Amino acid sequence: MKKSFGLCAALLSATLMLSPSASAFDPLTAAGVFTRLAAAPELSNPSVALIDVSTGETVFESNAYSQRKPASTMKLLAAVATLKYLEPSQVFATSVSLGTVPDSLVINGEFDPWISMDHRTAVKMNRTSFLRLAFNSLSAAKKNSGGSVKKLKVYYNDLYSNEVATFKAFYKKRGVTTNFIKVSEEKALSLSAEEIVYSTSPTVKEIMNWFLLWSDNVVSERMARLSSKAAGNEFNDKGVAITFKTLLRDLEIDPSNIVIKDASGLSRENKVTARVMAQLLYRVHRDPLLATLIEGLPVGGESGTLRSRYIETAPDAVGLVKAKTGTLTGTVSLAGYVQSGDREYAFVVIADKIRRTNAASDRARKTLDRYLAKIATPLFESTVDSATVVTDLQTL
Fold first, then answer.
1. Which of the chain's termini has less CB crowding within 10 Å, N or C?
2. pTM of the full predicted structure?
3. Listed residue (256, 275, 260, 107) closest to 178, CA to CA
């Protein structure tokens, strides 16, 4: 009997030894990998930070307090503000109606960030297009006036300025002179007669997932402004900057060393530090509400702006990196999370001193991905079925 138990134990031990260790990439090992990453010539002295999200321990930093251009990793701040100040299930509605005043239209909006100015894009992505709103409203106005219209009064509220300008241009091109009059929502409703078009957006959460997944600059800017408005600040870049910095303070992160010029990361005047962004990712991971942001991040080799990465350069890391990408001329950045066995790390790498060529950017991305792959490993579970073991023991 003792011999049988010994044989079973040996088999069990051997089976477990064949399984990769779930804790192979401990903080010391991860720090060693990131030390080499920070020194990689392809990344040209980047700003780097690595935090173990299970403990909050800063595992590695290099130039972590240096102000750098974040590119589209700035959208992480826009996403956090979206979840903090807007209701995740909220939708935005836009209606166009004939007016009670002769030859008039009423556009009652809610600053819907989802309306697309490009009709083909809208059709492809099942979004409401500006063309649909403009064409249907003009057709209804003509029909209501007996077949033609030369002048229109358009009462509106809560539209973006570029939407108003595009409406004007659309009508002018078709021989209609317009007078756009901004009114309150209550006034708009009182002036509305028959509804022509009604459109609603996806939920706030779905819109946030979209701009994170595909790095949509316009949508992220609009969502950040809506968040700023909900937070009681101005509906512009200045308000967004105040909102972002207030948000960081509320999360006990010092925002004094960052500069915010927009919410999308397009401005080269934006300045953040890897330290601030890594702390933000750590706090996002800990907060049940904010952690839903992680679901919207691109996944290496699988989705969004990371769908084509890792597949050839680091196939073992496919599915293990969830991160926001960033690209400007001379800048490659990546910020998110990497699964490393039984640990998960929040990381930020901002390489904004590389050569301003596509080849240099491509080399930087591939280098970054290869180094992340060195600590990326799935969370392995025991490959031994306990019920099978019991059966084997009984058999023996």
1. N
2. 0.88
3. 107
Largest CA distance in the chain: 100
Residue listed under structure tokens 């029909």? 143
Please tell me the distance from the alpha carbon of residue 366 to that of residue 372, in angstroms, as a whole number: 10
Q: Strands, DSSP E only, in 7-119? A: 47-52, 57-62, 93-99, 104-108
Over residues 133-161, the pLDDT tens digits come to 999 999 999 999 888 899 999 999 999 99
Find out whether 97 and 108 touch, Cβ atoms under 8 Å.
yes
Grouping H, G, I as helix, E, B as strand and the rest as coil, residue 365 is: helix
The structural domains of the chain, with segments of one domain joined by +, span: 1-19+381-396, 20-86+206-373, 93-201
**Domain covering 20-86+206-373 in this structure, CATH number:** 3.40.710.10
CA 233 to chain centre: 22
Residue 205, beta-bridge partner list: none
Q: Quote the pLDDT of residue 380.
A: 65
Contacts of residue 274, defined as CB under 8 A and 6 or more positions apart, other chains included, come to 47, 48, 49, 61, 63, 64, 66, 68, 348, 349, 350
pLDDT of residue 10: 42
pLDDT for res 12? 36
Residue where the block lists tokens 């904004």: 352
Strand (E) or helix (H) holding 153: strand 151-157
- Report how far residue 276's alpha carbon sits from residue 255's, in angstroms, rounded to the nearest whole number: 7
- How many residues are there in the chain? 396
- pLDDT, one tens digit per residue, over 279-310 is 999 999 999 999 999 999 999 999 999 999 99
